[in-house]
Specification:
By secondary structure, the chain is an alpha+beta fold.
């Protein structure tokens, strides 16, 4: 629901910006350049930094789940020690300034955790 509200408000802000003469070129685009993640192993420390531009507002999981034992920090670091083997699909979102109208980008990622 929050994602839908953000998209609706985002469209309203863009319409208002166009009405008062602002252009989209004034707002830097948020991009996520990480498109794949390395596999991990149960009970072995894992750390990976997500890459992107204009992501000062932080990184968030908006769909799915990280493998048990891993967390995503606000600055885009997935780290921890995975505890359960499996394939884990999730969607990360990077925000420009972490507000309801903030430009954002989403990326589906997968981490495969194998048994030790």
């Amino acid at each position: 629901m929050n994602r839908i509200r953000r998209l609706t408000l985002g469209a309203s802000v863009l319409a208002l910006a166009a009405l008062i003469g602002c252009t989209a070129s004034n707002v830097p685009m948020v991009t996520i350049t990480t498109t794949a993640l390395p596999n991990g192993v149960v009970n072995t420390p894992y750390s990976q930094i997500l890459q992107g531009s204009h992501t000062d507002g932080g990184w968030f999981i908006v769909d799915g789940n990280l493998p048990p034992g891993l967390t995503l920090s606000q600055n885009g670091v997935i780290s921890g020690t995975p505890t359960t083997a499996g394939s884990y699909s999730f969607t990360v979102e990077a925000d420009q300034n972490n507000s309801i109208n903030s430009p954002a980008a989403d990326q589906i990622l997968v981490i495969v955790i194998t048994a030790s």
